Predict the 3D structure of the following.
Amino acid sequence: MGVQRGGAADQAGLRPGDVILEADRRPVRGTDDVVAAARDGRAVFLVRRGASQEYVGLAIGNTQ
C-alpha cells in the first residue's frame, strides 16, 4: 500500500515509508488488517517512522 497525495492517509499525516505496526490497538499482519480497521471510516494507527513511533488518527469522509 502507498500514500496517495491528497488522500485520507496523506491528510492524516501518514508518509511514504511509514510502517503501520498497529491498527486500532491490534497488531497489523498485513494490508487486510489496515483496511478492516478503517472500514468504519476511522482508525488509529501506531506508525514506525524511522527510529520513532507515533499514533496517527485517520478519518475518511463523514464519520459523525
Observations:
- Helices lie at 8-12, 31-37.
- Residues 39 and 53 are 23 Å apart (CA to CA).
